[in-house]
């Protein structure tokens, strides 16, 4: 991407000046990865910089950021959907490193690096942290070691929605940088969470992507499943075995019984295929560390961002393996507990999940926190509990008395013409809100009391998109 050269030149120039460089990153794992690795790159340049993490962008947030009067702003994992507001508010030079769908055109003092500008898909070809990495590497080739952090962000952003859970597009090029430098090992294996560090039952119970109904979050059920159904030996002498200890035939046995388990619950048994795929190991991390598995690293960052401890995630991305890492592990426990409680709360009362003709509506009310409603909708999408024919729209009330919306689709719906990023943008603006994102995953913020009007607009737009897709196929 040729814009990377222009962005890297500006960053090098401002790194040699006295003025402060302000990095602003999104609070999810992709944003933390991108902001953290850019911070590491600036540190190596000897730059005067600071990092701020934001939950979302809107005109108010952009105006507040502009008041900080930095010499250079670097926006990571958002910005492309708010170019008009950025153009209006920022007098200083601004670099936007994003992968979301673009709205508007950048002004003369704004340089944008975005895969969509080159006909690439920001949902699968390159993440926000990937954009940040390519620019950081253009700043200095020494930053090739930051490829491992970029891959963490890409996986956390679920850019592995491909056959065999493999990263493709420009993400694959970043993986190659990591493999060539000895930073990353790529192999195919079971994708249970904690495959090298947790006993087998804990690993299965800790797996939420994809979500396994009846087993995810249920360690006792996982023990029963392994002992009675799959008949797996869980210990070798006094030592608990991990997934990485399993023989090939044992792994096959587990997968066969998982398919049977899902089928018995009426869940699409093909969902089990998402549990086998590419594993990305970070070779420089300690063998006993959960950071060694790039997906686990991403889960830790997601927890930090969504539990208001983004600073811990940034510190870890920049190399802290002491106090920040220790604190983050406790935050992860709290985060996973919040997810489990949210899913349990939804299951307790059927009315909290409404199966509408055009979409599945998740009503978080003010119980499911706005910071995890996106994660909840992703889990429900990957579980295939509600099939693949309708997207999931999740709503919950925020502390500011607005409504947070999270929308998730799948490859089947995207192939039929669904673009949730466009739908969230257009529908939210029509009710005085804001939104956007990717074709497969997007979000919005709308005024309280506008839910019904918004959902009616979303219904009409989804129906129109899928009807057009059907005509194109026929």
| Tally of domains | 3
Mean pLDDT comes to: 93
Broad CATH class of the largest domain:
Alpha Beta
Intertermini distance:
36 Å
Gyration radius over CA: 22 Å
| Helicity level | 40-55%
User: Number of helical segments?
Assistant: 17
| Sheet with the most strands: spatial strand order | 10-11-12-13-15-14
Shape: globular
Structural class: alpha/beta
The CATH architecture assignment of the largest domain turns out to be Alpha-Beta Complex
Number of strands: 15
Overview of the molecule:
The protein is 44% helix and 16% strand. The chain is α/β, with parallel strands linked by helices and 474 residues long. It folds into three domains: 3-154, inorganic pyrophosphatase (n-terminal core) (Alpha-Beta Complex); 189-331, no CATH class; 349-473, Diaminopimelate Epimerase, Chain A, domain 1 (Roll), CATH 3.10.310.40. α2 links the parallel β1 (21-26) and β2 (49-54). α16 (420-429) packs antiparallel against α17 (451-473).
């Amino acid at each position: 991407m040729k814009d990377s050269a222009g962005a890297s030149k500006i960053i090098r120039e401002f790194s040699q000046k006295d003025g402060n460089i302000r990095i602003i990153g999104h609070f999810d794992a992709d944003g933390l990865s991108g902001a953290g690795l850019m911070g590491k790159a600036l540190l190596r340049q000897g730059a005067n910089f600071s990092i701020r993490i934001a939950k979302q962008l809107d005109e108010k947030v952009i105006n507040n950021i502009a008041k900080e009067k930095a010499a250079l702003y670097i926006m990571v994992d958002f910005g492309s959907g708010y170019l008009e507001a950025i153009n209006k508010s920022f007098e200083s030079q601004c670099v936007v490193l994003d992968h979301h769908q673009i709205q508007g055109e950048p002004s003369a003092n704004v340089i944008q690096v975005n895969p969509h500008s080159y006909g690439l898909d920001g949902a699968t070809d390159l993440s926000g942290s990937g954009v940040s990495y390519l620019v950081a590497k253009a700043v200095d080739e020494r930053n090739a070691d930051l490829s491992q952090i970029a891959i963490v962000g890409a996986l956390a952003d679920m850019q592995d929605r491909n056959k065999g859970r493999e990263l493709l597009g420009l993400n694959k090029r970043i993986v190659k940088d990591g493999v060539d430098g000895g930073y990353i090992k790529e192999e195919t294996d079971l994708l249970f969470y904690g495959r090298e560090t947790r006993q087998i039952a804990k690993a299965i119970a800790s797996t939420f992507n994809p979500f396994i109904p009846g087993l995810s979050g249920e360690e006792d059920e996982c023990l029963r499943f392994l002992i009675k159904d799959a008949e797996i030996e869980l210990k070798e002498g006094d030592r608990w075995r991990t997934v990485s200890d399993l023989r090939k035939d044992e792994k096959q046995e587990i997968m066969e019984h998982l398919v049977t388990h899902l089928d018995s619950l009426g869940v699409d048994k093909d969902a089990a295929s998402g549990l086998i795929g590419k594993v990305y190991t970070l070779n420089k991390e300690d063998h006993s560390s959960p950071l060694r598995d790039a997906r686990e690293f991403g889960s830790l960052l997601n927890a930090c961002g969504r539990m208001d401890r983004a600073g811990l995630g940034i510190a870890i991305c920049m190399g802290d393996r002491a106090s920040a890492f220790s604190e983050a592990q406790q935050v992860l426990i709290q985060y996973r507990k919040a997810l489990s409680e949210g899913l349990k709360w939804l299951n307790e009362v059927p009315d909290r999940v409404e199966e509408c003709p055009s979409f599945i509506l998740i009503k978080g009310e003010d119980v499911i926190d706005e910071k995890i409603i996106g994660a909840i909708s992703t889990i429900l999408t990957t579980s295939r509990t509600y099939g693949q024919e309708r997207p999931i729209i999740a709503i919950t009330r925020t502390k500011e008395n607005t409504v947070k919306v999270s929308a998730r689709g799948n490859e089947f719906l995207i192939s039929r013409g669904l673009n949730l990023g466009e739908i969230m943008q257009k529908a939210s603006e029509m009710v005085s809100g804001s939104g956007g994102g990717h074709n497969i995953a997007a979000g919005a913020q709308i005024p309280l009391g506008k839910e019904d009007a918004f959902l009616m607009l979303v219904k009409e737009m989804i129906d129109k998109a899928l009807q057009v897709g059907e005509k194109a196929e026929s």
